[in-house]
């Protein structure tokens, strides 16, 4: 099968375009990666070429040795993915040591995989292990309301999780484990990848202060939906804070506990602290 006819590729392209339409991908902002299933690799194998040069990932991901990924390209624009996927994205293979990759398809006019490849792959490695291989998608975007809150809220997991849970009843059900926060760091390298993947051991969402968000999930729908839910909640908080300095009322810790019981989710008590008023 041609790569472009494969269902996972169609899903990848649709997700890029959905993110563009949300306004989360100015210029070349954001990146997406998908860990392919063995049967998906077999499906498109004949359309791949295996003579590319092995290149350094910039970190090591031994638990991803021999895995195949579809990823967006460095400097490529999400708004162009739907028009010319073979120019904007690629399929790559991780070598047996987990330190190198080679391109098997795509980036036909040159270029490299996303500048955030170390973060994507280290997050995949953590999630593959933590979910028994179920999670396959890592998504990075620049949603404005979430970024705005990193100038206003304390940069702690507790503050972001609790504030965003409060803004929509569905939030604790959609991201019950909470949200991790990385203070400002230089993007693109191994250090920020280590910090982010450390948070991904506990959370499916990590916010990079003054930069953007990473989400992890099983498939394109769940991962896009997660980003969308967090950003919607951030938008509500921005609106509320723009209207009044303090909320007149909100969801209380015991109400979250009642929700957790009925919706069969575990909400860590560290996020259900009593607030000073
Ligand atoms: O430009 O979003 O973090 C791509 C990015 C880097
Ligand atoms: Zn970014």
Structure description:
The chain is α+β, with helices and mostly antiparallel strands. It is built from 11 helices and 9 strands. It has helices spanning 7-22, 38-44, 78-81, 85-88, 117-130, 144-149, 157-166, 171-174, 190-200, 220-243, 253-263, and strands at residues 31-35, 55-56, 68-72, 89-94, 100-106, 137-141, 179-182, 205-208, 212-217. Strands 2-5-4-3-1-6-9-8-7 form a 9-stranded mixed β-sheet, sandwiched between helices. The longest helix is centred in the C-terminal third of the chain and has 24 residues, at 220-243. It is elongated, with a radius of gyration of 19 Å. The chain starts with 6 loop residues before the first helix and ends in a 14-residue tail after the last helix. The mean pLDDT is 98. The chain binds Dihydroxyacetone (2HA) and zinc ion (ZN). Residues 28-31, 115-116, 140, 187 line the site of Dihydroxyacetone (2HA).
What secondary-structure arrangement, pairings included, does this model have?
Layout: H1 7-22, E1 31-35, H2 38-44, E2 55-56, E3 68-72, H3 78-81, H4 85-88, E4 89-94, E5 100-106, H5 117-130, E6 137-141, H6 144-149, H7 157-166, H8 171-174, E7 179-182, H9 190-200, E8 205-208, E9 212-217, H10 220-243, H11 253-263
Parallel strand pairs: 7-8
Antiparallel strand pairs: 1-3, 1-6, 2-5, 3-4, 4-5, 6-9, 8-9
Helix pairs in contact: 5-9, 7-10
This protein binds Dihydroxyacetone and zinc ion.
